Amino acid sequence: MNLWQNFIRPKNLSEAMDAFARAARPLVPIAGGTDLMLDLEQGRHEPVQTLLDVTSIAEMTLLEVRGNELFIGAAVPVNRISLDPLIATHAQALAEAAALIAGPQVRNVATLGGNVAHALPAADGTIALTALNAEAEIAGITGTHRIPFQELFLGPGKSSLKHGEELLVGFHLPLTNNHQASCFKRIMRPQGVALPIINCAVWLERENDKVNQIRIAVGPGASTPWRAAEAEKFLAGKSMNDETINAALEILLAQIGFRSSARRASADYRRHIVDGLFRDVIQSAWERAVLTLKL
Fold first, then answer.
1. What is the maximal distance between C-alpha atoms in the chain?
2. CA 249 from centroid of its chain's CA atoms
3. Alpha helices in the chain (DSSP H)
């Protein structure tokens, strides 16, 4: 049995929106297909009439600086993101997250947009983009618009994108300035390519020995991508030392909503190991922020 009946490969967003309006339904966009094809083959996805291949849409394959922002197209492969010098300079947490997604073969075809659109609250790319204060660009019949990144998510596996009407075009991130830096790390079972037990991303700006601004994302911390807002508020303006980090960790633990997973870890175990992970990530970002960027 065919997994789909029609295959369309638009060259630009206008052609894609025309296909959205005219093609046979159900219609599903596809890029790398590393999740979608398995779901179709194994019966976890409803039958599809039309696959819309977005990998030839020029607007969705760009990775470039636009004014004071970095734009990353949703169809950019994960492996390119892990290696690109612009990402390394302006979104190091995202480069580190991308390098940990699946294995090399999957990273060569999987896309950042696909990683995000799957709407899992602890996906590596999603956690990094949350800490980096990204905005999502979305195309619809009436044109494109931007929304705060976290507004893409309604719950585990549930995206706010209007099915069959809207397409995730890409992501806009602020450029990194002097004394700003980010870091992403995760803890996983030591069994080859494994799913993470917990991950964490931090972006911060330092002023001498004080935290000027900070964003902290931990996954899974809630049913949607989650930032430790109370811990961020506490750390702003504080000197970075063990006492400050200890207090911030207590605030984070009081706010976070870890859950138990039979395949990954219990909530109690996650609460235990987040201590070392958070300290490691925030300290790495802090040390990186000392350096003056060579742009």
1. 64
2. 23
3. 13-22, 36-41, 78-83, 85-90, 92-98, 104-109, 112-117, 124-131, 229-235, 242-255, 267-288
* CA 256 to mean position of chain CA atoms: 19
Q: What span, in angstroms and rounded, lies between the C-alpha atoms of 131 and 116?
A: 14
Q: How confident is the model at residue 1 (pLDDT cuts 50, 70, 90)?
A: low
pLDDT of 293 > 50? The answer is no
* pLDDT reading at 286 higher than 90: yes
- The verdict on 192 and 272 lying in the same domain is yes
Number of domains comprising the chain:
3
pLDDT of residue 294: 42
Return the pLDDT at 196. 79
Asked if 219 and 123 touch (Cβ cutoff 8 Å), the reply is yes
The pLDDT tens digits of the residues spanning 223-258 come to 999 999 999 999 999 999 999 999 999 999 999 999
Asked whether the beta carbons of 151 and 122 are under 8 A apart, the reply is no
276 and 231 within one domain: yes
Q: For a pLDDT cut of 90, what percent of the chain falls above it?
A: 78
Query: Cα-flanking dihedrals φ and ψ of residue 209, to 5°?
Result: -100, 15
Q: Are residues 201 and 257 in the same domain?
A: yes
* Domain match, 257 and 273 both: yes
Q: List Cβ neighbours of 136 (8 Å cut-off, separation of 6 or more).
A: 116, 146, 147, 148, 149, 151, 152, 168, 170, 171, 172
